[in-house]
Amino acid sequence: MSAPPTRREQILAAAADLFARHGFHGVGIDDIGAAVGISGPALYRHFRSKDAMLGEMLTSISEDLLAGGTARAERAGTPAATLAELVRFQVDFALDNPALIAVQERNLGNLADPDRRRVRTLQRRYVEVWVDAIRSAVPGTDEPTGRAAAHAVFGLINSTPHSRYLDRDQMAELLRGMALAALSNATVLDGARDDLTKAG
Questions:
Q1: What value does the CA radius of gyration of the chain take, rounded to a whole number of Å?
Q2: What domains can be seen in the chain, in order of their start residue?
Q3: pLDDT value, residue 148
Q4: Distance of alpha carbon 172 from alpha carbon 189, whole angstroms
């Protein structure tokens, strides 16, 4: 059984939901406090500012994605299975964290410069995990095409906060199939389409 969330985690989750719905600048410290049942000023015992909350939130997302993606890539299955695992991981993350995905997409520009640089670095490293997996799974794919394909698939998968018309399992299956089909069609094909489909 997982441990209950800490007060700090509760605050970040509430802030993510509010930022996703109203925008970073549309949410005040009192709004976040009310969402977790404490006064706005009491939040300063946990975070020095609203900017600090956003920085920790987006840095944590990027760290979690990089760690999870790297772990799956290092499990050393077949290239097709590795890529399918990355797709599954990203789909699950997007479906389970729609508020965080929305905040990440919309609020990178609101980060303080050090946090923005850190998040950008982590994001680039995560993309490279995908580029390596795509190029291994579909021989003949050059690096720019692999990178473009990775970003395109992120866009497809991360659109889920705006298009959840199916239940979670149905949506996950649909997104996995669409992502793998998009990857196999967006790159140089060398018999990998069937492998990717089977791996998914």
A1: 18
A2: 51-199 (1.10.357.10)
A3: 92
A4: 25
